[in-house]
Amino acid sequence: MSINGQPPSATIVVTFPMPVGTRFEWHAHADHQIAWSPEGVLVVLTEGGGSYVLPPSRALWIPAGTVHETQASGAAVLRSVYLEPGRSPIDWPTPTPVAVSPLLGELIHHLDDRALGARERSRAEVVLFDLLLPLRISTIAVRPPTDPRARDVSEALLADPADSRTLHEWGRAVGASSRTLARAFLSDTGLSFGRWRTLVRLQASLSYLAEGIPVSAVAPLVGYRTTSAYVAAFRAHTGVTPGRYFQTQVAASPPRRAAGGVPR
What we know:
2 domains, 7 strands, seven-stranded antiparallel sheet, Arc Repressor Mutant, subunit A, disordered C terminus, Jelly Rolls, 264 residues
């Protein structure tokens, strides 16, 4: 990638203001991407039901060619780092959350300076790659059903996870028996309706947690009558409490490419 006529670099940083309601609909890039918001909370969805909630302390490595959608939870700023695959020493094959330390955040801002000389940029890129540390977290993936009537139910619950209607009540609303809906959810998603709805509620709660809303206030927003029930369900799926989910837990780095790297 060439910037202002300088020799090609491994990275380029592009900033996108994202007012409330902004959504970059399903798309893919030829380059790897690091999606990060220094202001506000991002939500990145990937094919297959993956959902990644990204406060300023967290970014997402998105491999080249990955179909994804990026949303703003409230107002946010997307600072996107694009990395040319042939010049990146990292080629993690799946979306990978990474910790954004104050140093990494400042370095991304630094690389956004178009006045940087080629040597300065090359040195900064080497440090950038060294600072990319994957996080050890359990993501919450929710795959929607394909059956039209079950999809109507799923879309309503995605819009309002706190809706507590039973499967029998949903059946009356969409014109299907509860048994038909139960079979559709299990066949299309691999989950019972109850388990599927639990994951929808947990997934919806992440944006509230990322915004700093207390756990006791999040629970009723996503359909739990008690905080303890919400915490128990969250810990059963992720292995941590809601209060600890966005704390940095750096995992062992996936292997980097055996050869190559950023050219000097």
